[in-house]
Amino acid sequence: MADLNDAYAAALFQIAKAEGNLERIEDELFRFARTLESNEDLRMSLTDSTIPVERRQNIVQELLGGKALPVTVALISFVVGVGRGRTLPEIIDRLVAKAAEERKEAVAEIRTAFPLDDAHRKRLAEALGRATGKKISIKEVIDPSVLGGVTAIIGDTVIDGTIRHRLEQLRESL
């Protein structure tokens, strides 16, 4: 299964790279994968084999049409169409890792309550780079459950700078 997901990730990566807009396509795919993971109804709709393939692909088109590049929509529709919707987030995560590896970067999945502006994103990438000794590529996830602050996941390392975590630490120390 993992080898098949790697093969799909490699194919999608090559297509995105050939389109000349790898970074944007990678970001759009990443955001869709996080949406798919967090939305049970969407996940069920795109993975239910009793729903005709055309309908599942139309769902992707309705959600992303005009909001994402046509190639992004086509790549997601393709994966859904071949029945790999359940593993789409894993395929996309492997594509993101492959793209970061090509740029000689490590991927940091950042969870915040609100979108970061470019200046904050840049400072955060620099700080994480100093902490890890690697050049960092930030992939941002907006997560309303994060009350404030940031959680960063870089490979197996989790850096929790959220207010909730700090309050828990304070409670434990008291």
Distance between the termini: 48 Å
Strand adjacency order, main sheet: 2-1-3-4
Strand content range: 5-15%
| Oligomer designation | single chain
**How many structural domains?**
2
CATH architecture identity of the largest domain? Orthogonal Bundle
Helix/strand class: alpha+beta
Total strands: the figure is 4
| Tally of separate helices | 8
- Write down the CATH class of the largest domain: Mainly Alpha
Q: CATH topology of the largest domain, which one?
A: Peroxidase, domain 1
**Shape summary:** globular
Mean pLDDT: 90
Major sheet size, sense and barrel closure: 4 strands, mixed
CA-atom Rg in angstroms: 17 Å
Relative helix content: 55-70%
CATH superfamily of the largest domain: N-terminal domain of the delta subunit of the F1F0-ATP synthase
Topology pattern, helix = H, strand = E = HHHHHHEHEEEH
Runs with pLDDT <50, length 5+?
none
